[in-house]
Automatic annotation (TrEMBL):
Keywords: Hydrolase
Family recorded in the similarity comment: Belongs to the arginine deiminase family.
Pathway given in the UniProt record: Amino-acid degradation; L-arginine degradation via ADI pathway; carbamoyl phosphate from L-arginine: step 1/2
Organism in which the protein naturally occurs: Acanthopleuribacter pedis
Record-given protein name: arginine deiminase
InterPro entries: Arg_deiminase
Active-site feature positions: C411 (amidino-cysteine intermediate)
Pfam families for this protein: ADI
PANTHER family: ARGININE DEIMINASE
Any GO BP: L-arginine deiminase pathway
EC nos: 3.5.3.6
GO MF term list: arginine deiminase activity
Substrates-to-products reaction catalysed: L-arginine + H2O = L-citrulline + NH4(+)
Length: 421
């Protein structure tokens, strides 16, 4: 058994889950696109190629890179897990006993694939079609449906119907996966599943992993955003106060705008000294746009709350001093363009070793200014390059298809285990 362990955004990555976009992406139609939260119809083959390169780079650093669909299949091989999953999944999708039996007949691999790709049926010789339940194309953005926080997990409550099946997949994986699973219920800091199946209105207490950043053994930053509510953050903070050693939660108040749907679309930590940010939100000289934060103190006998007017200053006061590197460079127009294509959404594989989309050229130039070498995927994968030689490095991955689904490198990863710093 391996230990779930996440106490930073930047510690050397040991184990991570991703999901290669499959038939669920190829089944997207223009009429479904908006509801399924994509901004375009992806060319699946290209998207898979981009994702494969991304996984190759991760594999060069991490000991284990899982695909969550395989993790689900490996979990479903146990009868108890299959029962747990099907019971809940059928309630979610309002499937009848007959449907459930048909799903029960599938082998674990087929069941996992159907859960992700959707249950699709051709009608009248292909002149029409229907979904018994829809595909889940956003599983590609593994960051969001669950989060490992310390040695426990949050099974997240998604804000949109399109993503509702995803926490059900993660719930089964995190309880039953042969290698990475929680040992007992006490390690679940937040659990969306009971309220989903209990029929509690979906917009209550939502929280998504793109908003949750574990900055250190003491500090978490969580966006209160278009996807994550203050009530959910408070509930999570209270659970962490009671059951963990975390000392502070900074709840960052985000604008309600699709372009900045999660905190990680405008802020990611990349090494012990730097964070990559969308500048307008972090400027002290611009109090209108700069993001205020609610500081939640977890060290006293009840949750203690104060308001701070600037996130980076508040972090500094807490001893977590980060200098901002500007996504998109110094020009506002470029900042807006590169933020939209996830320039601020870097994924950190070790302190100062990050992944980001190659299209964000101005962002890469800013990183060079603070000593980052910029490598293509090919260079990064060559035997002559040691990615763990301690040099600050950004590996550029192609994301021309992937970025159309509105997510970047951090969004596509679900870290399970990192080394302590
Ligand atoms: N952590 C993130 N920023 N995830 C981005 C998710 C993008 C996805 N299409 C959605 O709208 O939900």
């Amino acid at each position: 058994m391996s230990q779930l362990s996440i106490f930073s955004e930047i510690g050397r990555l040991r184990a991570v889950a991703v999901h290669r976009p499959g038939p669920e992406v190829d089944r997207m139609t223009p009429s479904l696109m908006h509801d399924l939260l994509f901004d375009d119809i992806l060319f699946g083959r290209e998207a898979r190629g981009e994702h494969d390169d991304f996984s190759r780079v991760l594999n060069k650093v991490a000991d284990r890179v899982f695909d969550v669909q395989d993790m689900l299949a490996d979990s479903l091989a146990q009868p108890r897990a299959r029962e747990h999953f099907l019971d809940r999944f059928c309630i979610l999708h309002k499937l009848n006993g007959q449907d459930k039996e048909r799903l029960s007949d599938l082998d674990p691999k087929e069941l996992a694939e159907t859960a992700v790709a959707g249950w699709y049926e051709d009608i009248d010789n292909g002149t029409n079609y229907q979904f018994r339940f829809p595909p889940v194309p956003n599983l590609l953005f593994m960051r969001d449906p669950a989060s490992v926080i310390g040695n426990g997990v949050s099974i997240n409550h998604m804000a949109t119907a399109a993503r509702r099946p995803e926490p059900f997949i993660l719930d089964t994986v995190l309880r039953f996966h042969p290698e990475y699973h929680i040992e007992n219920e006490k390690q679940i800091w937040f659990d969306a599943i009971p309220s989903y199946i209990g029929g509690i209105p979906e917009h209550n207490n939502t929280i998504e992993g793109g908003d949750t950043l574990v900055l250190s053994e003491d500090i978490l930053a969580i966006g209160i955003s278009i996807r994550t509510t203050q009530s959910a953050v408070t509930m999570l903070a209270e659970k962490l106060r009671r059951h963990t050693q975390f000392k502070t939660v900074f709840a960052v108040l985000m604008p309600h705008d699709r372009a900045v749907m999660h905190l990680d679309t405008v802020f990611t930590q990349i090494d012990p000294e730097h964070c990559l940010v969308f500048p307008p939100f972090f400027r002290e000289d611009n109090p209108i746009q700069s993001l205020p934060v609610i500081r939640m103190d977890l060290t006293s006998s009840s949750l203690h709350i104060t308001l701070e007017d600037n996130f980076l200053n508040a972090l500094k006061k807490e001893g977590h001093h980060l200098k901002p590197v500007f996504c998109g460079g110094t020009n506002r127009l470029d900042q807006e363009r590169e933020q939209w294509t996830d320039g601020a959404n870097a994924f950190c594989m070790a302190p100062g070793l990050i992944l980001g989309y190659s299209r964000n050229i101005k962002t890469a130039e800013e990183l060079e200014k603070v000593g980052y070498r910029i490598l293509t995927t090919e260079q990064a994968l060559s035997d002559s390059v040691d990615l763990l030689d301690g040099k600050r490095t950004m590996v550029m991955i192609a994301g021309n298809e992937l970025s159309r689904a509105r997510g970047g490198a951090r969004c596509m990863t679900f870290p399970l285990q990192r080394d302590p710093l």
